[in-house]
Amino acid sequence: MKTYIVIPAHNEEQFIAKTIESLVSQSVLPQKIVIVNDNSTDTTVDIINKFIDQYDFISLIDTNSSEEHMPGSKVINAFYQGYRTLDTDYDIICKFDADLIFPSNYIEQIIELFKKDSSIGMAGGFCYVQKNQEWKLENLTNKDHIRGALKAYRKACFKDINGLRPAMGWDTVDELLAQYHNWKIKTDASLHVKHLKPTGNTYNSKSKYKQGEAFYRMRYGLLITLIASVKLALRKRQPKLIKDYLAGYFKAKKKKQTFLVSPIEGKFIRNLRWKKMKKKLI
Fold first, then answer.
1. Distance between the two ends of the chain, CA-based, in angstroms?
2. pTM for this entry
3. How far apart are CA 90 and CA 1, in angstroms?
4. What is the pLDDT of residues 70-97, one digit of tens each?
């Protein structure tokens, strides 16, 4: 199966060499890697160019978005700058972050997952972060969710969900819509990926309401938003975030922000959320 990878990168000089090195050392190589330099002001481009000189399947494009590190829109807009340079002769399209170290069998194993079950639309491993010199499972990880840092999509699934939304919540709504279209989400706990820069470390203060806005735009409704806010804030070990999430939800509602999904998709999403919550309680 042909695998294409797009990597948005903004000021990743500390990490990107390790990410690329882990990808060019795979037991099964990707056919193409496109790295999108998104307004970097450090040596990120110089590092990428050294790899381009060695590997003909790696390419670089430049784009200029805001220097602010806002979750959602910035990274997906950069992803699409890279995606548009690719042909459609792929089986798997991946959106990877520029601060990951993949095990050498990662791509091979992801391909095997897709081959074994034609109903799997998305697949990924588990992210680990370093704490006190030990690599520990990132606290946002669970077996039912693929982290936004390492998404891999079967082409048919990617088309069914109409690609990725340039908004906070893109890495949740993609999975919800995949299930709406009867695709399975598959995680492989044996694939340990080192996440060198934990999620959200560089988000600025303006982003604190974005999660609540995302809940509104995914048509969660108030009760599911409340439950999801409590769950996420506690998982992050920051209870004060509950207030920010709910404030974001009501701000979005007051502004009548555009929804990320249709009414029928929203109904499916709410039913799916309730179903999963009830399942965990039983």
1. 39
2. 0.91
3. 7
4. 567 889 999 999 999 999 999 999 999 9
